[in-house]
Backbone:
């Protein structure tokens, strides 16, 4: 067995091998066995008190769980001591890149600093221990926070009403399109309006959402400047159009400079104007979609308002809507049932409660036009706490500064890297800039994937690659507002170095990454013969025995 | 103010490099007609000020001193080690593992999560997680429609109403019909779904039967017989389960469930007024290509080192776009990590103790109420850790007890008009004998 | 592996090939298509007995990061599918014109072959 393999279960010395300091010339090789491999019968990390004899005696008079419904064999969960458990996950954590370790310019994902005070707030017992079905009189703080956050989001976006319920951006899209359909149906046009228009630069979630709602997605081409082709849009709009879904700024990082005409054309066709708000972080205080005539937008709360992305969630995808869509919002909404809204806001902005103010959850069935529920309860409350904290910390001036500096940084990288990589849309960008690696591919056979892997060796997360689809060999860079100029300059230097290597030593880039815990992984093999869970059978006998009886050699390591 | 590191000099340098005079020039492409006219937000707060504001809001909540509230969300011990692990910046401030070489921590932890959920449910494959249990159930129903080519789903009324409402919303999208299978809520009834009633409601155009174990009332369903009824008409069995109960109750894989959906909140995630939680979904390998959501698989690198990647991605929206199995994009990775850490921390013995203590204290509470002559169990069938109790003047007493900081469970009547004066009481391992005494005393005092 | 289209068969503009074995049409995808898709990881095969219409979708082929519909180059009833593709989809990459065949079809209308390209014309189509 190679030392690179996972050590065999029972090999106590093997566990430490993962973190043995590398010898000079050795590659850094870090492996961590599965948690199941360190399981030993009888070990445990958490202990619980036993029920009292009085409780047991009282319970004995109640009907027991019938044998027919009982579990036959206990689940083979790991049995580990607390320290070993912690080491396992801490070691795993060392295999990750993260914002708090280094630059993470992953376009479209807004990997900016997530302030610690947000985390402090989300963990306050008064909030974290609040049960979603606690009677309203016990949950006034949770309800007020939701109500205040909705008020802030209204002002930020210019929309008439907010639902916090959707759990993610794509979930907000689903909600928005379900409301779109409810709106058209309410006007007797439900049958006729069957198409959702999406630009060819859109997120994949847009057409996928259209399908989930029973709509047909129709793709609209982009114009040579990277915006939506207004003539093609006008030609596609008609009495069968349910909605246009448009990301603005677009996935190219470009503001749709004809957005007023786009919205007007959609409205004129009687369709709903949906804005994908994934890139709202670029335009805070500059453009309010509701004010500009959009009917609905989802907020990626975790991006613009800074929840740590958690390795891929949880996030939150509240939606803002215009007056005409408001009747269809999901239920229940948090309501201010006693008190003047302006007074409650004014007091909250100065940190004071409003005497006599009272909040309640909208009652079930109170708004028959609602599309219903898209998620249990009122949404990802933990993200609301963080977003509220973030907005209050920044204030209006701070939020403007967020967008200003995000756009400034992206444009800085745009001009600094323009000599090294092709810029298919060479104009002022917003919070992100999309380059193309086509020159490197055509002239030197170096793909954007190779470039991304080479970046990994510099302890920087690569940009988003191969998206948007309309840019060949796309490299989508979103620096965010929280990276210092030194970090940006260092990145520029590294990218120039990689571009130079593409010319002089392309094979070197093909070998990247060299310094990561694992090299390029065989994704084709993973998909052809999926291995999606631990195979207990492979460890049911000690590895030494398996070898003696000639079991598959990799079984000892594979587990 | 913002968390931007830039000094005035930094900004000047960047503007000069770009070749514009001011940052406003970078927004000149916004048409004048639609530029923002207002942005009337409160002033920035310093950390001590924002802390005071959040403490004020937290203080407006009154966390009950005694609570028997469950109904889908349960107050369990969140071991300190779980909070520690998910608080690590390497996990919390990373994103979707698009670059597996620098994401093995997240990827392996999800692989372990998938393995743990398979083991708990007795299924062959589990996804990397969904938004919550309700959306996981709705996605399971739509998956059953894709697998069977049918457009109708049957759901027991003893499935949590929050879940059924979300199911209805999701099914309205593609026009899937939802038919209800009535549980026996009659006077002296069982409180569970009779297999013969399910069989009567199931027709050969049904894609699936959805039933919950334990059900909304804590009752224990005859899941095997319900699965048989579904399979009789070629429909799939979707089992909605509560994960800690699986220490004591049969694994869905053992009674013929085809798809399992669950709310994973009890596994180390605080109630947090409704989220974030984690939806669990598991199924069989032969259905994997119709499963929605992310999956992590094991593979090797060029040197033969084992590693993990996102796999079977061609099912997903970023590739399949309008033909994708679902529009789901993110999962709830950090919550899945909490669940994986929780299950590894408690182990089989700990999970059994949690389930056992919950079941004992629910029975303790029911027995104490009955023996004090305060109320009676509403249903005849055995239950797990939640029990429906008929009690006179329930709404008034529930509200009065809340004023004392005691939440006497969940009032069922708003969701089930036939269940007037009925409280749904839940217990967990955190329920103490003193809690039971306080509940009984509170009910006595409001007679 | 060769991506050169062999002369013994005809080609659709959607990059499927068809080769006659008596009255049975063997169909597959071209080496050019397999190259464009990259590492193929899954093939959704038609049901034996299914009736295909010329140029209609009859299945799906997935690579790691792309999905493509399969279009029947000719009409007819599916007589046999290549079960090896279930366990070894990579045959489409390694031997697209041989052991990577997808299905055998009882040809409905031989005249449909005239609507397809010969090897030279197909080579020209994919040369750009």
Residues:
């Amino acid at each position: 067995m190679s030392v690179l393999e996972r050590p065999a279960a029972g090999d106590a010395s093997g566990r430490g091998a993962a973190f043995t300091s590398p010898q000079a010339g050795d590659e850094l090789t870090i492996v961590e066995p599965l948690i199941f491999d360190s399981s030993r019968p009888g070990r445990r990390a958490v202990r619980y008190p036993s029920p009292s004899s009085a409780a047991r005696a009282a319970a004995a008079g109640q009907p027991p769980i019938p044998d027919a419904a009982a579990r036959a064999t206990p689940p083979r969960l790991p049995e580990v001591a607390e320290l070993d458990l912690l080491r396992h996950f801490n070691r795993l954590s060392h295999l990750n890149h993260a914002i708090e370790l280094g630059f993470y310019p992953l376009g479209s994902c807004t990997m900016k600093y997530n302030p610690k005070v947000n985390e402090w707030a989300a963990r306050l017992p008064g909030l974290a221990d609040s049960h979603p079905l606690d009677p309203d009189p016990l949950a006034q703080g949770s309800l007020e926070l939701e109500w205040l956050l909705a008020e802030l989001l209204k002002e930020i976006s210019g929309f008439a009403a907010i639902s916090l319920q959707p759990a993610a951006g794509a979930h907000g899209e689903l909600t928005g399109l379900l409301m779109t359909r409810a709106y058209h149906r309410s006007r007797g046009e439900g049958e006729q309006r069957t198409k959702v228009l999406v630009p060819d630069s859109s997120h994949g979630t847009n057409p996928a959402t259209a399908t989930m709602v029973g709509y047909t997605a129709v793709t609209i081409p982009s114009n040579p400047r990277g915006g939506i082709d207004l003539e093609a849009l006008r030609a596609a709009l008609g009495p069968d159009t349910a909605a246009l879904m448009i990301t603005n700024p677009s996935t190219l990082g470009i503001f749709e400079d004809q957005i007023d005409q786009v919205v007007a054309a959609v409205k004129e066709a009687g369709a709903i104007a949906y804005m994908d708000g994934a890139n709202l972080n670029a335009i805070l205080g500059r453009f309010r979609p509701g004010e500009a005539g959009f009917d609905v937008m989802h907020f990626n709360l975790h991006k613009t308002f800074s929840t740590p992305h958690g390795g891929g969630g949880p996030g939150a995808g509240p939606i803002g809507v215009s007056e005409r869509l408001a009747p269809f919002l999901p239920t229940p909404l948090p309501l201010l049932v006693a008190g003047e809204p302006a007074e409650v806001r004014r007091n909250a902005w100065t940190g004071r409660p409003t005497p006599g103010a009272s909040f309640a959850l909208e009652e079930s069935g109170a708004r028959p036009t609602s599309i219903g529920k898209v998620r249990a309860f009122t949404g990802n409350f933990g993200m609301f706490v963080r977003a509220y904290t973030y907005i209050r910390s920044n204030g209006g001036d701070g939020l403007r500064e967020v967008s200003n500096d995000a756009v400034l940084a992206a444009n800085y990288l745009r001009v600094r890297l323009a000599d090294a990589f092709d810029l298919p849309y060479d104009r002022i960008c917003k919070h992100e800039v999309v380059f193309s690696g086509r020159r490197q591919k055509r002239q030197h056979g170096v793909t954007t994937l190779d470039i991304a892997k080479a970046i990994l060796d510099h302890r920087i997360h690569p940009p988003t690659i191969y998206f948007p689809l309309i840019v060949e060999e796309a490299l989508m860079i979103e620096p965010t507002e929280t990276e210092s100029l030194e970090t940006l300059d260092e990145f520029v230097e590294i990218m120039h170095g990689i571009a130079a290597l593409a010319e002089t030593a392309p094979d070197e880039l093909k070998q990247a990454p060299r310094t990561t815990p694992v090299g390029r992984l065989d994704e084709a093999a993973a998909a052809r013969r999926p291995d999606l869970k631990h195979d207990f059978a492979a460890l049911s006998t000690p590895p030494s025995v398996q070898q003696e009886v000639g079991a598959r050699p990799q079984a000892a390591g594979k587990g | 103010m913002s968390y931007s590191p830039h000094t005035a000099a930094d900004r000047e340098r960047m503007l000069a490099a770009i070749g514009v005079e001011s940052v406003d020039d970078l927004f000149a492409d916004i048409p004048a007609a639609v530029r923002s006219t207002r942005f009337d937000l409160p002033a920035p707060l310093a950390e001590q000020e924002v802390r005071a504001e959040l403490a004020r809001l937290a203080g407006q909540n009154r966390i009950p001193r005694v609570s028997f509230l469950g109904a889908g969300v349960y107050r369990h011990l969140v071991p300190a080690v779980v909070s520690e692990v998910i608080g690590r910046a390497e996990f919390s401030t990373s994103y979707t593992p698009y670059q597996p070489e620098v994401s093995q921590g997240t990827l392996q932890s999800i692989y372990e999560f998938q393995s743990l959920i398979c083991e708990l449910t007795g299924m062959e494959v589990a996804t990397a997680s969904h938004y919550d249990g309700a959306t996981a159930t709705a996605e399971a129903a739509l998956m059953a429609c894709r697998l069977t080519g049918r457009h109708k789903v049957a759901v027991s009324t003893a499935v949590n109403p929050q879940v059924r409402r979300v199911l209805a919303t999701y099914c309205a999208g593609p026009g899937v019909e939802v038919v209800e299978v009535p549980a026996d809520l009659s006077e002296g009834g069982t409180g569970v779904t009779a297999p013969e009633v399910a069989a009567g409601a199931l027709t050969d155009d049904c894609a699936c039967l959805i039933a919950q174990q334990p059900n909304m009332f804590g009752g224990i369903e005859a899941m095997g017989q319900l699965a048989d009824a579904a399979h009789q008409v070629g429909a799939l069995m979707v089992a909605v389960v509560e994960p800690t109960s699986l220490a004591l109750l049969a694994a869905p894989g053992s009674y013929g469930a085809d798809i399992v959906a669950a709310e994973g909140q009890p596994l180390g995630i605080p109630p947090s007024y409704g989220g974030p939680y984690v939806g669990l979904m598991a199924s069989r390998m032969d259905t994997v290509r119709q499963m929605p959501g992310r999956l992590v698989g094991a593979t090797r690198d060029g040197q033969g080192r084992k590693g993990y990647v996102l796999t079977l991605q061609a099912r997903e929206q970023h590739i399949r776009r309008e033909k994708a199995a679902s529009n789901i994009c993110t999962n709830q990775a950090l919550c899945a990590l909490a669940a994986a850490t929780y299950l590894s921390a408690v182990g089989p013995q700990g999970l059994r103790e949690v389930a056992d203590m919950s079941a004992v204290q629910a029975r303790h509470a029911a027995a104490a109420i009955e023996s004090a002559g305060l109320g009676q169990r509403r249903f005849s069938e055995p239950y797990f850790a939640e029990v429906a109790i008929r009690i006179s003047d329930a709404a008034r007493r529930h509200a009065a007890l809340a004023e004392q900081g005691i939440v006497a469970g969940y009032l069922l009547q708003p969701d089930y008009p036939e269940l007037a004066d009925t409280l749904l009481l839940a217990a967990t391992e955190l329920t103490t004998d003193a809690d039971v005494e306080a509940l009984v005393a509170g009910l006595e005092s409001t007679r | 592996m060769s991506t050169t289209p062999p002369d013994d068969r005809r080609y659709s503009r959607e990059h499927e090939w068809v080769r006659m074995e008596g009255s049975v049409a063997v169909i597959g995808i071209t080496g050019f298509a397999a190259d464009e898709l990259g590492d193929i990881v899954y093939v959704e095969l038609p049901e034996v007995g299914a009736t295909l219409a010329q140029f209609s979708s009859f299945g799906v082929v997935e690579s790691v990061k792309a999905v493509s519909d399969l279009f029947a180059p000719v009409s007819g009833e599916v007589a046999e599918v290549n079960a090896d593709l279930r366990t070894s989809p990579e045959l489409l990459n390694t031997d697209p014109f041989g052991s990577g065949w997808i299905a055998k079809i009882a040809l409905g209308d031989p005249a449909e072959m005239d609507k397809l390209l010969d090897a030279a014309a197909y080579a020209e189509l994919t040369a750009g």
Remarks:
- Chain B is about 35% helix and 15% strand.
